[in-house]
Amino acid sequence: MRKKIVAGNWKMNNNFNQTKDLVTELKEFNFPKDVSVMISPAYPFLKTSVDLLQDSSIKVVSQNIHQKNNGAYTGEVSSEMLKSIGVNNTLIGHSERRAYFNETDDVLLEKIEFALNNNLNIIFCFGEELSDRKSNNHFKLVKTQLDNTVLKMNKESWKNIILAYEPVWAIGTGETATPEQAQEMHEFVRNYICECYDNSVSDNVSILYGGSVKPSNASEIFNKNDVDGGLIGGASLSAKDFNLIIEANSSL
Ligand code: 13P
């Protein structure tokens, strides 16, 4: 059975005190038991977040990892380092990493391999640009993004993989994909995963939607069959809004 998940990607927002305050505020909520909640603060605050959340079910996720274990890679952070501070999850392939930091499919494949080999769970992000959608190339593009990366992993690895479909044109723009557009892509991806492996993989992988999800549109998106939750940017910076989005994903 696949899990319902809501994850907050805080991106490059919140200083130390703001991070502590938001984590502390989130801890106070009684989140529904059927939704797994994750947050992704900036690197310097991951350890503090893990410590503050010791007695909580909220999981801490890193926003990125480097594709090597250790060594002369100034400014980078490895899977092993994250594990050593109790971070067991990482985002990989966010469109901002692809666009601003030149992360190609080849680099992302290395990152996925390193993360999985170090027993990190990954949330792998993918999605098309507006131009791809306008030229009706979005399914082909997403298929290629997945073929070049996660679909190279063996069947066993999929218990540690979560997918996040984030159409680039919907990120931070206020323009959300319609629930139908999200469902159509999620269904396409799930069917394709079934073709590549079998339904023991496709039925169990959680596929999140990301891109301008807010309390007012969350439930209609999450109600779609193949949408298992959300990866939330802007709205996850408000504890109140994030909680409403989490509640929107609960069936309890
Ligand atoms: P917004 O929710 O701000 O559109 O960001 C989505 C996102 O990029 C999450 O990773």
Provide the descriptors you would attach to this structure in a database record.
11 helices, binds 1,3-dihydroxyacetonephosphate, alpha/beta, TIM Barrel, 38% helix, 252 residues
Descriptive account of the structure:
- This protein has helices spanning 16-27, 46-52, 79-84, 95-100, 105-117, 130-134, 138-147, 179-196, 199-202, 218-222, 239-248; strands at residues 4-9, 35-40, 59-62, 89-92, 121-126, 161-165, 207-210, 229-232.
- Strand 1 (4-9), helix 1 (16-27) and strand 2 (35-40) form a beta-alpha-beta unit.
- It is globular.
- It has a single domain (4-248), classed as Alpha-Beta Barrel (TIM Barrel), CATH 3.20.20.
- The model has no long low-confidence stretch (mean pLDDT 97).
- The longest helix is centred in the last third of the chain and has 18 residues, at 179-196.
- The chain has 252 residues and is α/β, with parallel strands linked by helices.
- An 8-stranded parallel beta barrel has the order 1-2-3-4-5-6-7-8, surrounded by 5 helices.
